[in-house]
Structures are given as structure tokens and as C-alpha cells.
Amino acid sequence: MSKDKALLRRMDSSIDTKLSFTYEDVEQIASHILDRVKCRPKLGIICGSGLGKLADLVQEREVIPYTEIPGFPSSTVPGHEGKLVFGKLSGKSVVLMQGRAHCYEGYSPQKTTLAVRTMKMMGINTLFVTNAAGGINRNYNVGDIMVIKDHVNLAGFAGVNPLVGVNDERFGPRFPAMSRAYDLDLRKLALNTAKEMGFGEFVREGVYSMMVGPNFETVTECRFLNQIGIDATGMSTVPEVLVAIHCGMRVFGMSLITNKVIMEYDAEDVANHEEVLQTGDRRSTDLQQLMTQIVDKVEL
Ligand SMILES: O=P(O)(O)O[C@H]1O[C@H](CO)[C@@H](O)[C@H]1O
Ligand SMILES: Nc1nc2[nH]cnc2c(=O)[nH]1
User: Fold this and answer.
1) Where are the transmembrane segments (predicted)?
2) Helix (H, G, I), strand (E, B), or coil: what is residue 272?
């Protein structure tokens, strides 16, 4: 055998397809789920840390734990139950993800977002994402709700992006635009609804950023985020939104500001997940009310 042939044989020049779930894989997962439920929703809602109580308001519930869905990552973080909850919210058919997967749990960005493509394959065309986030904007208070108008994919700067890998055009284009990721009409609907409900004082609109985590940010990282125009930061949501936009879904997002990030080098406070969950608990009723009103008004 020539030297060149031996080298070619030794070096695998193919793309690592193990990264991704194929279109056929996702089809199978979606039909596995649909075989188990009667509900046929067009709206999907992802509940962030401590925000899963929204599922308590769902009627005619049909529940599937993630552990019973092939390929689905199981939830390993407190505040994320790890269940798909189908049923009616404000009279509309919905599916709620009670808990999400995060890259910091050790899941690939592709696995972290598998549920989003699965939802699309199940007929869902509108995705609402929620999260718990640290307030970077100094005018924000703990307990504020931020309608997301844009994001900065800081994790993407380091190569963490679920759209990396073989692109199957049946999911979406190789180079998806991301300049209108958060639907303008839905943002307006949410802000107007908040005003009507008397929530205007604590519902804002701002920019979310995602770093992989699991550590909370250093003081200098927070100062940097503040300088580049970030209002709130977390460890999720962005990969889900990238995948949702890639596969043609309409996206709306809200962050609950669960803590103010530390920006003083001599501060004694430190960020912690317990505070995140406690704020989620305290504000969950308002967030649930706002969400149910938006669901009531949204056209699907
Ligand atoms: O983004 P969600 O899942 O709401 O949770 C946020 O809260 C957790 C940290 O307290 C992290 O998982 C962060 O991403
Ligand atoms: N990265 C990050 N995620 C959070 N989730 C809730 N609070 C925070 C925070 O301060 N930083």
C-alpha cells in the first residue's frame, strides 16, 4: 500500500455525526411521545429554574417523565422536575417542559436542545422559554421579570452551539439569521399585557446572555457583561432559541431576575442556587398569571 493510502486509511476525515440526532431519530422520538398522549399542542413552554409550578395550572394533564423518552436527557438540577406536561392552559393545548437540560450538566448542546426539535416535529410552531437569571442591569431588582428582546451567545464564542455539525436542511438552513430571534409582536403583547395587569413597574425588556456555567460569574465578568449591554445573564435558553429559530419556530422569552449579580470586588454576598429557587417561589404566582394571560391572547 502506498504511503498516502495508508495515511488516508489511518486518518478519519469524516464529520463526527455522533454529535447530532438525525431527522429520522427525532421523528421516532416525536412519534413515541405522540403515541402516548391525546393532546396535539401548537405551543410549547420551557420552564426555567424554580418556574415549573406553571404546570400545576395545566388541565387535562398527560405527563411523561423525560426518563421514559428515548434520547431525552434527564434533569439533574434542583428546580427542574424533568417531565413533559401536556394539557390545556387558558383553554389552549400546550406542552410544558417542567425542567430543562443544561450544557453544564455534561450534555452536548445538541442533546440539550433535542426536546426543541422534537417539539417542532410534534407540530409545535411557537415556543415560550423562561429562565432564572442574574440581574446585570443596575436598575433591575430581584423579582423583576424581563421580556427578552435579544441575546448574546457568549457560549457560542467558545464554540458551544447546537447548530454545529452536519446540517440537515429538513430541520433548517445552514446559516440561519438570528437578528429577529425574539418575535416583536409577542414582545409587544407581553409588555402590553403586563401593563394591563398592573405589572408595568416590574416587567422590563432587555438582553439576555448565556455562559455555560455551572459557576456563577466573577466580578470582572459581570462588569464586562454590563459594559457590553447585557441586562441579565444565565446558563440556558440560548441553545434552545438557536434551534427553535433554525427550525422555523416563533420564539418568545422571559427571564425572572432571581438575584443581582455581584459587581463590587469587596462585596461579602455570593450568588447561590438557593436564592434563585427562593425568588422563583416568591414570584411564581405573578409569573404564572402573566404567562396564562399571554397564552390566552396569543394566536397560534
Ligand atoms: O436557566 P435556568 O434553567 O432557568 O436556571 C438558571 O439558574 C441556575 C443557577 O441558579 C442555572 O441553571 C441557570 O441557568
Ligand atoms: N450565570 C448565571 N445564571 C444565573 N441564574 C440565576 N442567577 C444567575 C446568575 O447570577 N448567573
Assistant:
1) none
2) coil
